[in-house]
Amino acid sequence: MKRTMLFLVATVAVALSAAGCGGPATGEVDKDYLQKAEQLGKQRREIFLRAQGNYDAMSAEDRKAYLDSFDGNEENAKKFWNLMKNPPRSFGPEVPGQQQ
User: Fold this and answer.
1) 8 Å CB contact between 55 and 78
2) Which residue among 14, 43, 71, 99 is least enclosed by CB atoms within 10 Å?
């Protein structure tokens, strides 16, 4: 559960940094964008949990919603699914010999 939360936090952090890349130069955060990104992340995670992590076990309705959230790109959808199923061991550079 802790790894999942870290993954979600990292996903939101990436969304935050991406929101600032092409946005207005005012230095303000696009709260609308962040709210939509957070909602999308929650929706994807709920679908993942309902399918118990098994991509092929999604209902037809969930599969459509999940793929629609990736503009129908199944390759990207599966990559993201695999990241939820097997989150990275760490979010920083790995140091040889370091235990995690």
Assistant:
1) yes
2) 99
